[in-house]
Amino acid sequence: MVPAMRKWFNENFTQEKYEDFLAQLNSKHPDAIEFRVAETPLFIDKAFTAKIISACEAIIDVITQPNFNAIIRNAIPTNLKVPGNTKQPQFIAFDFGICENDEGELEPQLIEMQGFPSLFAYQLLLEEITQAIYTIPENYTAYLNGLTRETYLHLLKQIIVQDYPTENVVLLELLPHQQKTRIDFYLTQEYIGIPIVCLTELIQKGQKLFYIRDHKEIEIKRIYNRIIFDELQQQSAALIEKGKILFEELAVEWVPHPNWFYKISKYSLPFIQHPFVPQTTFLDEIDTIPTNLENYVLKPLFSFGGQGVIIDVSETDLINIKDPQSWILQRKVKYADVIQTPDLSAKAEIRIFYFWKEGEQRPIATSNLARLSKDKMIGVRYNQDKEWVGSSQCYFEK
Question: Rounded to an integer, what is the distance from CA 23 to the centroid of its chain?
């Protein structure tokens, strides 16, 4: 992205540095990182950063408009609605592909967004180790809006914990120690001080929830939610039955409330008009099938992590869809092979973290993660046996 920085990094890279980088990254919680970590960060100049932020802020404009809840009223599947709600999602993640437009210029294009947490704690560690091994120049930072590691972490803890004792605030996940993102759970526990609690550990007494630590029953007053309720429905009958607790009226606060996962998602895309947000239409609202289907991608609304996406769309695919109201047709974007590596150039996606402190009018951009790919799809489950791909982060020009 910044030719001089890419040249600097690649010329100074050694396999020994990378192995040292991985060793330090894994030393805190051995075997907790199952996904591939890329050899390089991304370097993003001011102009490209401004384009990403302009798109994010335009989406925030839509989310904060008074009629937002009305226009996305059908976003939550009926069987996944959780009682209660909050005025705002405390966390939003925006995923942008680094793309090439028809003029051959680089630009960000929104791929997906989520009213849900991301790897907020893990990225702190990743940045720390990257700095230690690669000594990133001082005019580049992984943080946005003038935040530093300390102020970012302070804000994150404020939002998650508020004024509660940390024992009354839990990170809730489904089988957390089996999740590929468990490194983030462990680091959240370490940095924020809240316990990790599995769905199976919940004890219900009326509207209150409890968990047990050191033979002591502790009330849960606030939940930092990491359960994707769509995934919960795919578990064993016993886990699904246990999960029914969460669909009851409970005397707990959610961070964020599970309904925001669906409200700010692919479902919201058709309502956003911006040069860096691909044209998106609900499939059941399309009167005439486009003749240039090769320029579109078909996505299920209620499937996540890239599952079910049809990249090479045919008219037969559209005809065979039995529930068109649950699909979107989105203008295809052209990922740019923009990151030079020792063999093939890599594509990249950038995820921008937004934190929304209660009482504030708008959320703010705080930090990021990035993913590098040499495959059609971007994500840790792809790119098997390739190098200079995987999980990473961006450094933004100050």
Answer: 25
